[in-house]
Amino acid sequence: MLLKLIAVILYMAVLLIIGAVASRRMKDVRDYFAANKSLGFLAVAFSARATGESAWLLLGLTGMGAAVGVKAFWVVLGEVLGVMGAWIFLSRRFKRLTDVYDSITIPDYLESRFRDEGHGLRLVSAFALVIFVTIYVSAQIDATGTAFHSFLGWNYQVGAVVGFVVVMIYIISGGFLAVVWSDVFQGALMFLGLVGLPIAGLVHAGGISLVLEGLQQQDPGLLSPWGPGGWTALTPFSIISLALIGLGFLGSPQIFVRFLALRSEDEIPKGALVAFIWTLLADSGAVVTGLVGRHLLVKPGADPATVMGNGGQNVLPLLSDLVLPTFMVGVMIAIVLSAIMSTVDSLLIVASSAYVRDYYQKVRHPNLHDGELMALSRKATAALALFALAVAMVVSIISPTRTIFWFVIFGWSGIAATFCPAIILSVYWKRMTARGAMCAMITGFLCVPLFKFGAPHLPGIGAALGALEELPPAFFLGGLVGIIVSLLDPAGQARLVGVSEEIDKAGA
Question: Distance between CA 185 and CA 342 in Å, rounded?
C-alpha cells in the first residue's frame, strides 16, 4: 500500500510543480485562455488526446471490453475516424480563420465568423458550456472517487475530494498553459499504461491463444463483433452509436481550443500523425485490457458483474493488482488519475472562459481590465468546480448502479451536439448565418436530454432510439436545423460581408 501511495504522491507533486512554473508565464488573459497561441504539434496532439479521452477510456472502455468483448472495437474505429477527421479536414481551416479573427476562445470565433453583433452566440455558448461542462466534470470527479476506492480502498468521497483539490491548485495558478503542459505529461502516462498493461496481462495469461480460448468458453459472443447477445434487430443501432462516438471530436470546444492555440498551421501534419498513433494504440490497448482482464479474473460459473463491477469498470484496477508489481500498480493509479484530471482541467478552463470572457466581459463589461479579468477567471473556475463536485456527490447517492462510461458520454454528447455541427458548417459553408448557428446549437443542446431520457420510451421506435443513444440524432438534427434556418435567413446572409473570401482562403 505504501509503494502505491508513493507513486500517486509523486504524480501529484509533478502536477503542482507544473502549475507553479506555468503561473510565472501568465501575463494576461490571452495567456490564461490560449497560451498566447504559441503551442507546438507535440503539445497540442498529446493535450488534445488526453483531454478528449478522460476516465471513460481507462475505466469505461476497458470495462466495455470486459463486458461486451470485441464489440468494443467499434468504439476504437469511431475514435480513430473522429480524431483524424478533426485533424485532416477541420483543423487547418479552423486555425486559419481563428488567426484572421484573432480569436482566443471558441465563442470569439463564432461571433466573428457569423458577424453576430448581438452577442447571442456568446450567450448560448456560455450557457451550454456551463451546463454540460458541469455534468462532464462531475463525471470525472465521480471517476476519481471510484479510482481511489478501487485501487487503494479509500472512502469514495475522500478520494474524489483529494483529486479535486490537486486539479484546482494547478489549474487556477497556471491557466491553459499549465493544462497543456500537464496534459503532455499525463497523455504520455496514459499511452504507456494502455499499451503496457495488456502486454503484461497477455504474458501472465500465457499468450493470446489461451486468452481467446478462455473467452470462447465463457461466452462465444465475447469474440463476436455483434456482442454477447448476437445479432438482433437492435444491433445495427448500437453499432452505429459506438462507431459515431467520434463525432464529438469534430468541433468540441475543449478539443478545438488547442488547434486555435497552435503557433502555426505547419504543425498540423506532424500533430495528426502523433494523434493517429496515440488513438489507435491506446484505445485498442484499453479494449484488450478488458478482454484479458475478463479471461483472468472471471472464473467458470462466476458472475462478471460481481467480479468486475457494474459495466466491468473495475477490470483495470483488478488486472493491475494481479499482474503488476506494487509500485507499478501505484503508477497505474496515477495513469487513471491522468485521464481524469487532463479532462477536468481543460473543461474548467473552457467553461470559465465562456462565462468570464464571453459573457461577463464581452457582453456585460467590455472595458474590464485584464488584471481584473484574470482574478475573476480564477474565481469562476473554482466556483464551477465546486458545483461539479456537488453534482458528483449527489449522483453517487441517487444512482449507485451508474457506469462511468455512460455518465461521461452524456456530458460529452451535450457539448458535441451543441457545438460540432455549427463548427463544421462554419468552416465549409459560406451561407451559414448567425441565426442558423444559434438554432443549430440550441437544437443540439435540447435534443441530447430529449433522446437520452424521452425518446427511449416512445412506442414502437423507442428501443431503437435507446440503442442509438443521444449523440448521433442530436448531432444530425442540429446540423439540419442550422442549414434550414440559414437558407431562410436572407437578412443574416446579407451581413456575411467578406466571409466568402475568408473561407476560400482558409481552404486554399
Answer: 9
Helix (H) or strand (E) holding 300: none
Kindly report, residue by residue over 158-210, the tens digit of the pLDDT: 877 877 777 676 566 555 666 677 778 878 888 989 999 999 999 999 999 99
Q: In the numeric block, which cell numbers belong to residue 323? A: 499482474
Residue positions counted in the chain: 508
What is the model's pTM?
0.86
Q: Give the chain's end-to-end CA distance (angstroms, integer).
A: 57
For residue 134, CA distances in Å to 131, 294, 318, 379 come to 5, 33, 29, 15
Please say whether the beta carbons of 358 and 32 come within 8 A: no
Q: Supply the range of the domain harboring residue 333.
A: 2-506
Count other Cβ atoms within 10 Å, centred on residue 377.
24
306 C-beta neighbours (distance < 10 Å), count: 9
Q: Half-sphere exposure of 403 toward its Cβ, with a 13 Å CA cutoff?
A: 22
Query: Which tens digit of pLDDT belongs to each residue from 226-242?
Result: 999 889 988 999 999 99
CA dihedral 229, 235, 241, 245 (to 10 degrees): 60
What is the overall mean pLDDT for the chain? Answer: 84
Question: Of 74, 68, 62, 70, which Cα lies nearest the Cα of 228?
Answer: 68
- In the chain, how many domains are there? 1
What does DSSP assign to residue 248? G
Longest dimension (CA), the chain: 69
150 in Cβ contact with 296 (< 8 Å):
no
Place of cell 503488476: 324
Q: Which residues lie below 8 Å from residue 101, measured CB to CB, with a gap of 6+?
A: 108, 109, 112, 113
Burial class (CB in 10 A: 0-12, 13-18, 19+), 387: middle
pLDDT of 372-410, one tens digit each?
666 777 777 778 778 888 877 887 777 766 555 566 777
CA atoms within 13 A on the CB side of 138: 24
Q: How confident is the model at residue 36 (pLDDT cuts 50, 70, 90)?
A: low
The residue-averaged pLDDT of 1-14 equals 74
CATH number assigned to the domain comprising residue 435: 1.20.1730.10
Coil vs helix vs strand at 262: strand
Determine the distance from the C-alpha atom of residue 491 to the mean position of all C-alpha atoms in its chain, rounded to a whole number.
Answer: 36
